[in-house]
Amino acid sequence: MRSHNQYLVNSVKRAIHILHVLAEHGPELRVTDIAALAGMHKSTVHRFLVTLENEDWVRKDQSRDTYSLGFSLLRVARTAQHQFSLYPVAHQEMQRLVELSGETAILTILDTDRKHALCIDKVECQQSIKVISEIGKRIPLHAGASGKILGAYLSQSEFDSLVSEGLPRYTKDTVTSPEVLKSQFAQIRENGYVITVGETERGVAGIAFPIFGADKTVRAAISIAGPSFRFEPKSRLTYLTGLVRQSAARISSAISLGQQSPNP
After folding, report:
1. CATH class belonging to 84-260
2. Over the stretch 127-161, which tens digit does the pLDDT of each residue have?
3. Distance between CA 228 and CA 92 in Å, rounded?
4. Is the domain 4-73 a CATH 1.10.760.10 member?
């Protein structure tokens, strides 16, 4: 019986790796930059880029001789987003949450590497001072509400893997101690939510709750983020926490009912 790895196509893996490099280090990179970041030979990278450009997966700026992600990725991402069962229910609830809270709402899932959260949807508020997130952005699991709420539900082996490479510091309030993080994660699970201030950016506060599926496992997280001064006084913070709790409960209930319903 063949193993799963025997079916992997190396050229496809390398092309995808190049796309990841452009996504994480772009928006505009030269061939030499991509080759260095991807750990591949320049001529090999160039061949892949020519093919990807032909299919509109990457775009080339002829005047600057740089590459960026193409519109085919955007079309595929939009299709995947709408096919994702969580999205239609969550987006409507996020719009409601933004209207009531006046802050930006963010929807995250655990990324495939199990070491980051991934923003899959956002609804920005209309405030002049606000938090701006990006769909597709990878978020640390040890800092900030939208990542920490998912990090808290990692298995022990996943937690060990997360802290094994070190925990980057973003501000003076970022937790970099595995022992402290483990304790905080336990507290988050006990409370059922997390509030953070200034852990990824100074002056930014966030509130996040998990979204559960029918099997009671965490499917995603919903959070709001904004300048910390708008999360005060305590009565305001309590009000905002209640809003996010309600949204998480509504989304959890809706997707649980959907998961339990038979397919047509």
Report:
1. alpha beta
2. 999 998 888 888 999 999 999 999 999 999 999 99
3. 25
4. no
